[in-house]
Amino acid sequence: MTTMKLYAFADEASPELSGQIAALKRNGLQGLEIRTVDGENISAITAAKAREVRARLDDEGLTVWSIGSPIGKIDIRTGDYPAELEKLRHTLELAAILGAENLRMFSFYLPAGESPKQFRQEVLDRLGQMADIAEGTGVTLCHENEKGIYGDIAFRCLEIHHAVPAIRGVFDPANFIQCGQDTWEAWALLFPFIKYLHVKDALADGSVVPAGKGIGNVARIVAAFRALGRSPLTIEPHLTVFSGLSALERAGEESIIGRYAYDSSDKAFDAACEALRGLLAQA
Question: What angle do CA 100, 19, 197 make, to 5 degrees?
Fold first, then answer.
């Protein structure tokens, strides 16, 4: 059985790099999918800052697996696309400094109420241009399914991978649930194109819960991913932090929200890591 390498969006534990490092180390993780650092989005930091981050992570024996960039999270009609391409070029330079082999990205927000079909070719053309920019950098662009973008459900993600083969996939079960997409059907369609998973589960109403506690087939998908000999996973907690919860409950009672709400970001992060380890132990 493949030994899994585990990474995380540790900015959900702390906005500061020092807090992220502490969260990763106490949970025995290998490193980061880096999204924000010291309160600043990764795509906006300077090369000098990236070198500082790399040095600190190297000292702690941690690595950056992927850049959790916001590239492609702009409106297809009103967003500044040329600026987005410049942001991509800059973020690829940062990826090289940080030693990241992947860059997470998206396929543009669509106007509400309009048919995705009318934007298909423009989306695919833009993604092809982005793939051309990344070619030769050693960094793989990885498209994440996300609510509200072109590639929100499985068959449109498949269109992207067929049209732009250089772009691989990040599979996020909770995001599919929030779009009304059955996650196992999505996995069966997309698994040949998936580079890695975001470990995030949800209930039918879209609320995020620890892995294995929702309807996302997370245990089954993680097992299938592992059976393919693939390894890295990114933990993305997205769990509710509600610091006033304990004061609202009587001793010995637990409210419904309290099952998956936590009184600090650190505790929510640790709960997400514990849930994944529980799934892996059962496999």
Answer: 40
- Burial (CB count within 10 angstroms: exposed 0-12, middle 13-18, buried 19+), residue 147: middle
For residue 199, give every residue at least 6 positions away whose Cβ sits within 8 Å of its Cβ, in sequence order, or none. Answer: 211, 218, 222, 233, 234, 235, 236, 272, 276
Torsion of CA 111, 117, 122, 125, to 10 degrees: 140
pLDDT for residue 243 = 56
Angstrom distance (rounded) from CA 228 to CA 173 = 18
In sequence order, the 6+-apart residues with CB closer than 8 A to the CB of 73 are: 106, 108, 109, 146, 149
Paired with 31 in beta bridges are 7, 63
Residues 54-109 pLDDT 10s = 999 999 999 999 999 999 999 999 999 999 999 999 999 999 999 999 999 999 99
- Interval 154-186: pLDDT, tens: 999 999 999 999 999 999 999 999 999 999 999
The count of other CB atoms within 10 Å of the CB of residue 90 is 16
Rounded CA separation 104/140 (Å) = 8
Give the Cα separation of 173 and 182 in Å (integer). 9
> In this structure, is the dihedral angle defined by the CA atoms of residues 147, 154, 268 and 72, taken in order, positive or negative?
negative
> If DSSP codes are grouped into helix, strand and coil, which group holds residue 156?
helix
Q: How far apart are CA 150 and CA 164, in angstroms?
A: 14
* DSSP codes of every residue in 159-183: HHHHH-TT-EEEE-HHHHHHTT--H
What pLDDT was estimated at residue 3? 77
Tokens representing residue 265 in the block: 């970001």
**CA dihedral of residues 146, 149, 151, 155 (deg, nearest 10):** 100
What value does the mean pLDDT take over residues 117-145? Answer: 98
Handedness of CA 78, 81, 82, 87 (dihedral sign): positive
